[in-house]
Design goal:
The protein is built from 2 helices and 31 strands. It has 452 residues and is mainly β. The chain folds into 3 domains: 46-118, Sandwich (Immunoglobulin-like), CATH 2.60.40; 126-304, Lipocalin, CATH 2.40.128; 321-451, Sandwich (Jelly Rolls), CATH 2.60.120.260. Strands 8-11-12-16-17-18-19-20 form an 8-stranded antiparallel beta barrel. A hairpin with a 2-residue loop joins strand 27 and strand 28 (395-406). The protein is globular and about 65 Å long.
Amino acid sequence: MKNSSQITFKNTLSFFMLVSIFSLSSCKKDPEPTLTEPPTAADAAFTYSPSAANDNIIEFEAVNSTMTCNWDFDNGTTGSGANVIATYPNAGTYTVTLTVFNQGGSASSSQEIVIDQTDPSLLNDPLFEFLTGGINGPGSKTWVIDSASATHFGVGPDPVGSAGDFPEYWDAGPNEKPGCGMYDDRYVFHLNNFQFDMVTNGSVYVDNLLSGDFPNSYENLGDYTAPFSDQLNESWNITKAADTMISLSGSSFIGFWTGVQDYRIINISDTSLWLQYTDISDGLLWYLRLIPEGFVSSGGGGVVNSYSLPLDFESVEPILTTFGNSSYAYISNPDQSGINTSSMVLETVHGNETWAGLFVDLDTPLDFSAATMISVKVWAPITGDFRIKIENSSNTNDFVEVDGVVTNANTWEEITVDFSAASSGVYDRLVLFPGWDVANAGTFYLDDISQQ
């Protein structure tokens, strides 16, 4: 005879087995996710037409605007978005390629466009003039590393530290890296078709962590020297945005190889080109100073960080010092209207101190014997005082400050203040206090700082 506990246990076990079987038979596997269909060449189709302003400025439109659109304009520039514009200063035939992307993949299509005539006016850009010699120059300019100058090469943190755009971790002394394959390299920027030539003289200098990019490289003064042939008939492109960048094509690069071909312009003039660029191997920022071939360097070293008025931020982006927790950047003009239709402006976000602002050091002390006024174009989020101060950098207790007034918010306005009471030949620092006496005053845009 079976006892009741055995019967109960078996009945319970049978019940759970039945439930489990029912559960397993009732579960259905979720359907596999359906991948988006990849785009076709038809999705990458595009149309184009000359702009109303100029036949050499072409407007492009992607047929399928729902996808991510990347453009190669075959003129040394690229773009993104469904509706884009490209400028072609030089006559010629260009093959424009649109590549579209979605979650399923990508597709491309290309068309040839013909530019009938060269338009020199489209090459009349201060950056082009500094970099290549301009439309009235010989057509190209050759740059070399300023090896005779201290701080011609160095490294610092990324993002930049308290020292600003400066190689605060290490900087090279004059001719500190001889025979490494960098000092004898030549970088030729042509205006015609934005051609770029990298003349290596047979070798280049590369980051030790990236020596594997170059077969037969060997250790040399802390990093590696590598055999590398000339990179000719490549192209260069300048992008004006928050940071003005030079980008190179193919396998060409400038100076010390860190795995990138995009260089931020810290400062550029007829005789000096300061570049900052990233290192993909260790997250650092590298710095290079170049000079035109044949130019005799002063050998003084140090990053050039003094400037002269006027400042319009189109070709030179001064290194500024902020205080009161303000910040700044150079960006495309967000409101090209009214009294200011220029391309680039200085953006500054006001810090949390009522006295927040920023300053720039000048080459020489200001001369007020003939021009006593200082003016600045301002786009302010609020009305109120805008203080302008001139200061003796060697004795900061020696200064003169005058308040201007912003009377209209959210539009460009020129503020002019009078320094006729100030002495000439004393003050070599210009200090700006947008949103004076207001904490967290917002984002201001400044342009065209001049003396008149």
